Amino acid sequence: MNTLKAGAPAPAFSLLDQDGNQVTLSDFAGKKILFYFYPKAMTPGCTVQAQGLRDVNAELEALNVVVLGVSIDPVARLGKFIARDNLNFTLLSDEDHQVAEQFGVWGTKKFTLRKFS
């Protein structure tokens, strides 16, 4: 997995948003982007994070920052997440996790089980 370095330009992308509209990196020229990658919409941890971003989004917008949430969820699930939690930022569907891989945030979970006596 390649990790994107701090300050490096974001990789170009083209994904569908919660309404099925095509969104590209160039749509946000001149703005700062806060990418919020999360594993699955409407799960406890992801919901708390999304609500936190929702609650500070006006402050971020005042600083010329756009929040983009990215997950492997299908478009329909993203729309439900927006509606259920009154989210005020764009969610993007990366079903094949290609963009997450470009950003270096996609990987297989690994667990180590140890036996202690």
TrEMBL record:
Pfam families: AhpC-TSA. GO terms for molecular function: thioredoxin peroxidase activity. It catalyses: a hydroperoxide + [thioredoxin]-dithiol = an alcohol + [thioredoxin]-disulfide + H2O. Residues 4-117 form the Thioredoxin domain. The keyword Disulfide bond applies. Signal peptide: none annotated. GO terms for biological process: cell redox homeostasis; cellular response to oxidative stress. It is an enzyme of class 1 (oxidoreductase). Transmembrane segments: none annotated. GO terms for cellular component: cytoplasm. Its EC number is 1.11.1.24. Belongs to the peroxiredoxin family. BCP/PrxQ subfamily. Thiol-specific peroxidase that catalyzes the reduction of hydrogen peroxide and organic hydroperoxides to water and alcohols, respectively. Plays a role in cell protection against oxidative stress by detoxifying peroxides and as sensor of hydrogen peroxide-mediated signaling events. This is thioredoxin-dependent peroxiredoxin. The lineage of its organism: Bacteria, Pseudomonadati, Pseudomonadota, Gammaproteobacteria, Vibrionales.
